[in-house]
Amino acid sequence: MSQSSCANIHAEAKICVFWDVKDFSIPTMDPDFISKKFGSALKERGYRGDLSILMIGDKTTTLPLIELKDEFERAGIRFSFIPEEVSGTKYGRDMKLLVDMLIWALKNGESNLVVLAKNIEEETPLLYLSAFRVRGYKVFSPDHPKLESPEWLYESLSESCQTPTSKGGSSQM
């Protein structure tokens, strides 16, 4: 895949990776290493802004990682839990992702939004991804036809670790 470079206006902007841990399982590796690999992959493409990573999942998916919460947070990786009422549904994951993106955008202004989620099914999140783009945000999403896919970012982890924690998104460390 050719590596595209970012436009100058996005080079120094903050970056947030919204990571659906059901769609993209968490590899068994040190959280600091994950953060550094993502940072390196983004820098290779010209993005140098501060990096935040938000793992989105239900409590059962991320439960094995809760005991390592402090270690993840020191690495710039936070957890965002899907409400129990919609936990276990793709709709719930998509809506939680959208809400977290809106909160991030309100707090941080124009920035780079990286969506590591597959098969966004609802029309509403796809419309919001377009709206973010129109308002000056750089958005990466594998499911939007006009946006660059961010799968190269996740693949940067697989270069170092061949075995994800589990298939289907459950995480164990």
Compact description:
The chain is built from seven helices and five strands. The protein has helices spanning 8-11, 31-44, 59-66, 69-74, 90-108, 123-134, 151-158; strands at residues 15-20, 51-57, 77-81, 112-116, 138-140.
Topology (elements, then pairings):
Elements: H1 8-11, E1 15-20, H2 31-44, E2 51-57, H3 59-66, H4 69-74, E3 77-81, H5 90-108, E4 112-116, H6 123-134, E5 138-140, H7 151-158
Parallel strand pairs: 1-2, 1-4, 2-3, 4-5
Helix pairs in contact: 2-7
Molecular shape: globular
What is the CATH T-level topology? Answer: Rossmann fold
Q: Please give the CATH architecture.
A: 3-Layer(aba) Sandwich
Which oligomeric state applies?
Answer: single chain
N-to-C SSE string, H for helix and E for strand: HEHEHHEHEHEH
Low-confidence stretches: 162-173
SSE class: alpha/beta
Radius of gyration: 15 Å
How many helices? Answer: 7
